[in-house]
Amino acid sequence: METLPQIANSIREVAALAQTSVSTVSRVLNQSGYVRAEVRERIERVITATGFVPSAVAKGLQRRQSSLVGVVIPRIDSYSISAMVAGISTVLEAAGYSLLLAHTDNQVERELKALQLFKEQRVNGVLLLAAELGEQHRQAFSLLKLPLVVLGQDASGLGISCVLQDECAASTTLTQALLARGHRRIGYIGVNDRDIQVGGERKRGYQTALSAAGIAADSTLITAGGFDFASAALAVDQLMALPQPPTALLAATDRLAIGAISRLAEKGLHVPDNISVVGMGDIDIAAMMQPRLSTVHYDYQASGSRAAHLLLAQLKQEITATSKAVMPFTIKMRDSTRQLAP
Amino acid sequence: METLPQIANSIREVAALAQTSVSTVSRVLNQSGYVRAEVRERIERVITATGFVPSAVAKGLQRRQSSLVGVVIPRIDSYSISAMVAGISTVLEAAGYSLLLAHTDNQVERELKALQLFKEQRVNGVLLLAAELGEQHRQAFSLLKLPLVVLGQDASGLGISCVLQDECAASTTLTQALLARGHRRIGYIGVNDRDIQVGGERKRGYQTALSAAGIAADSTLITAGGFDFASAALAVDQLMALPQPPTALLAATDRLAIGAISRLAEKGLHVPDNISVVGMGDIDIAAMMQPRLSTVHYDYQASGSRAAHLLLAQLKQEITATSKAVMPFTIKMRDSTRQLAP
DNA sequence: CTGAAAGCGCTTACAG
DNA sequence: CTGAAAGCGCTTACAG
């Protein structure tokens, strides 16, 4: 056999080198059909000698199967999103899919463009980590005609499977933990309601717990802003300037809680001695901070893999009904909260 | 015109509906060549009516151009990596490329598999965020034959362009800041040397500063482990059990610093009153912690976009020489360090 | 067990 | 300005 480790760029060149047909090469490449051992060996030798790598593009064109899944994320520099993507990635890669990732910087426009791009790339399915779901999404989804699973927002009303955290119950329980510690005036540091889950539901849970405890609603105790530290600082300024300031703060996310604690420190207020603070999400650092942050734990990685599994089921056409998975939570009361003296 | 908003799955069907040829449809799709306004309009109407989306797969097969860039990351749930990917993504998407993401969970084997997969998908280039570079990588790179840029490790010796932080200088400067505050016994919480940049270079910088200050090397002050909180706790236990314990701790990463501070607190040691601690990396939370963490700031997002630009230049074949970009750093002395009483 | 041929959905000279 | 035809690199019946 000639030692020509030249490069083969196509199955056809491999076939020529191995003195056989493309059909046969295709068979050994896909381990399908019968191939005489001798021929198979000859082909395999050529493949390793040339370092030939078959084109998934050509294969995909034929099979109408790209083995690609598009993942849309609003931002990547977020603990919860990273964790979800890790979960997604693990499941999907194990199933033989590759991830096409589009980050949209929270711009709906870029989100829609990403969806378009995914269609062009003929992805087999789409996973959308959503912060907001508006009319534009509704339209885009109906045009998508592709297996789709939404993470983080409730899309079941649109006939789309989704994976959610049990936001309202979580914040109710968390608020109750604060109430149980004697707090009656609890400030709420929230985010915009357009994010129905993190904005709306978490706030609703807080309100539910208060009214169940017979505490009159006080809108001055409720703030809303972005996810950034500056928003947290603003909220703290506002809340602590109240005639009757809160004895505890519930922040819609751990980041906001951390920002709040930092701002409180700047004001000379110490957590938990002067004021209790809780967050939501249980980012990895929450348990390491000083004081260790009380919060609610979500298993974001499991949420990601759950969503991936839902998509996989759709891809295998095992599933037609739209399902809505609500993930469980755990309350983690640590050191940023304390019992109020009676 | 018939109102048949049926679906067109190929340029051929569009052509039939618009009563023209595929060549012409292709021309309007790509805005190439001349098309009579009337015909163009007819085609465009069919496209919008059918919601036709051309196949990037077929196009890629023809043009031998996938518009895909493969990105390999060891983990996704890391601040620095997320930030780099954000930088990469922004630049590459603006240039019309999509990201194919593979996370490898720090397993070389999966890294090599990802590279193989990228070749199959006929990506136009590869960006590798590397924690370690071994013999297997050397081999894989030589077989890759694809534009490649490495982030986080020095691959210039392999003839591969890369983007690095100025690790050694950064940790030297940081150590000097500690020395300037009167610390003589500085413990080092490091990671495995196989990670040449974060493991080796950061340690080397620390050692350089000490020896330049005329302080005898003391190997008992140097620990090595993983990137996790448990490793930090272990290192603290070890360092603080020394007959003459350190007055300051330099952790190779902010996470390790946070883990160390937490462990110190468990031991009843307060930062910075009882001991000073510095980290490296300046994760977003560093400036928000109590105490605010002293550290060195790297612009990870800029590093990512720098790497993306290097790759883009290769893709345009503007560049042939291998370049090595060393990114700048800034020392951020905050509240986790204090002047030692003389 | 193996090969010739059609076809996946595009692009691109090449004629007209 | 427009269309027929070849070809990108595979897969898949269909014959043999």
From TrEMBL, chains A, B:
Domain HTH lacI-type: from-to ranges: 10-63
A Gene Ontology molecular function term of the record: DNA-binding transcription factor activity
PROSITE patterns in the cross-refs: HTH_LACI_2
Superkingdom, taxonomy of origin: Bacteria
Alphabetical list of CDD domains matching this protein: HTH_LacI, PBP1_TreR-like
Keyword DNA-binding: yes
Keywords: DNA-binding, Transcription, Transcription regulation
Protein name stated in the entry: LacI family transcriptional regulator
